[in-house]
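Assemble and predict.
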Amino acid sequence: MPKVTETHKRRRRQAILDAAEQIFLGKGYQSTTVDDIAVRSGLSVGALYRYFSGKSDILLTLMEDRLGRTPDLLERLTADAHDPWEQIGRCVDIFVLALRVRHPSTGRLLIVAWGEALQDSTVRDGLLRRFTGLVDYIRTVIQRGIASGKFRRDADAKVLASLLVCLADGVTLYWSANSSSLELQRIRTTVMSMVRAYLSPELA
Amino acid sequence: MPKVTETHKRRRRQAILDAAEQIFLGKGYQSTTVDDIAVRSGLSVGALYRYFSGKSDILLTLMEDRLGRTPDLLERLTADAHDPWEQIGRCVDIFVLALRVRHPSTGRLLIVAWGEALQDSTVRDGLLRRFTGLVDYIRTVIQRGIASGKFRRDADAKVLASLLVCLADGVTLYWSANSSSLELQRIRTTVMSMVRAYLSPELA
Amino acid sequence: MPKVTETHKRRRRQAILDAAEQIFLGKGYQSTTVDDIAVRSGLSVGALYRYFSGKSDILLTLMEDRLGRTPDLLERLTADAHDPWEQIGRCVDIFVLALRVRHPSTGRLLIVAWGEALQDSTVRDGLLRRFTGLVDYIRTVIQRGIASGKFRRDADAKVLASLLVCLADGVTLYWSANSSSLELQRIRTTVMSMVRAYLSPELA
Amino acid sequence: MPKVTETHKRRRRQAILDAAEQIFLGKGYQSTTVDDIAVRSGLSVGALYRYFSGKSDILLTLMEDRLGRTPDLLERLTADAHDPWEQIGRCVDIFVLALRVRHPSTGRLLIVAWGEALQDSTVRDGLLRRFTGLVDYIRTVIQRGIASGKFRRDADAKVLASLLVCLADGVTLYWSANSSSLELQRIRTTVMSMVRAYLSPELA
DNA sequence: CATGAATGAGTCTTCATTCAT
DNA sequence: AATGAATGAAGACTCATTCAT
């Protein structure tokens, strides 16, 4: 029976995380009450405290769960592309397009996390870890492209990788606040044009 | 007599805004108490309410004061450059470098504002207005470059402008959280390289 | 289980109302703090808000509970009297005597309510509804007396009814402020004499 | 110059009292702020404290000024009527009609006073003194009528007097809350009918 | 005398967390 | 395990009163 209990527990935790996410995205972390989360997840407040040690624990877990996976996701989705150009294209797609389309909430969650990061160093560290993870992976992709001679030799792999992540998060911010003000398709095209223009060897 | 009073009033307001900014940046908006602000600005709580209608009024004013001026600033600093290449270069400088150096707090204030924007449409509107203002100006710069034949004819002025602003805010986010993880000089260089590569006519 | 909970809830609400009433009568509504009520009812401030939506809700409920029942009470207590003279006598008794004797606090509560009525239209409406309810019932009693020929034909039923209610509340005011200044027995006798003198047919 | 100053002082005090009265009538005593009164009377808050020792002092003075005069007024207005019937008629007129017409605000001021009387014994004593003053005068009128043989011998002068005052205040309450629910003319007629019926010797 | 800026205790209300059942 | 009533500390805001100018 411990197995059943384990499953049960995991399901409950997930239900709570899902409920919390929805409300955090709508009202932000601070304005969300524990009661809100309890009601939405169909549990009692008391029960909630059996699965999480408190409100902030829910946010932390949620971030780990939602944002922590992005680097893995990135790696998985680029794995089957062997040409550097295709790989970097995938990165752009994932950031600027795919991620938003599949998980439109990620953006707002990011905002929530950033807001909390100001006062909570655990949250801040989580965000920076995610940043580093993403940057490191993209940097590797770029460096492989340089090594293979397909990318221009003096490209700044680290900085370009950082810029792409910063750009992605910047776009996410505005897109989640007012999705009508940005046209993702044109953004994708333009970003790719810039990246291609920058990385092409003949440009040097 | 009115002069003394007016000056006094302005000074007080400024003191309150300064105090509030410092604390907001450290703990975020929600975690900052009105009392915190009062103590730091050397006033009593009651006095504070003579200058602002409430806590949210302080944030709003602060945003207007700190963030609202960016479009104007941008315009002023680019005004004396007549070559499109120089103008766009200035824009990049201002965003990615100058602004951060001069007002390192702007980034964190942006985070605070974004966090509040989730629940407060007034704040959200303020941020979007700022975005539109910045984008519109940069777009004009680019379009002038295109018209003059110095920029490639089929460049997407609107999207590029948006991207630069998103990028700037994305960089700001991470830079304000951990300034050591980004090297602004290399960022500037790289961004300019990309923009130049993208906008150069011979590339088409 | 619901039964226990319901009973519990009712008891708690009643305890709060009782506590609030006592303090309102002593200090008036505005000077009573929510904390006062909480302490006296043996609950915490927070608990209080589980039963009432706020301080004003307590007053409103209290009025409904204490004053709102008067019309029903009047009807019930007059129901078994079939002679118009006896019915009107009962009305006078209830107002001028019985009610005060049984619920000496009603008067002060009325004062509290009147005071709040100045600024709170909900309270004002409640008081006027009570007035109308009482007047309407007494008017019916008088009209039946007129129809049966036992009361003088040209008596002004509506106005007399209003007067009796106004008189009752006026007496209540002074009696609750200083019960020794009024002798209820003599009042009853005198009011009945006046009513009898006014309503007797032979007077016309 | 002391004379000028004295006049000035009196005028100021009067202006403050007038302003306070208007606002008290509209919002009640507790909800009225000292600032409200200052603004309306065209003075500064500070100045106000040179004429009154505080907010409650204003209310007390106001009551003395407005309500304290009623007994005198009553005496003056009945003085030139020598027939007991006319005198008692005047009393009714003054209460039920004249007073309301000339000073419609008296009623609400009475409410304000009653509300404060709950916590402030000075106010309560003032109200009771006013009550006693009025009752005593009317009682004298009635007793003179009895002595002259024009009123029925066994009339209860004291109680009738009290009843008339209670009735007047009761009517005032409802009339000031909703003047449309009471028709003063019909009230006057009916009250006089009752009084006449009660006091007429032939009725005994 | 007048001003009105400043004070700060006091109010209502919310909400994360606990714990008896 | 689950419930949800109870807690009580904390927060935003108000306002009678004072006092430097």
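Residues 15 and 41 of chain C are 6 Å apart (CA to CA).
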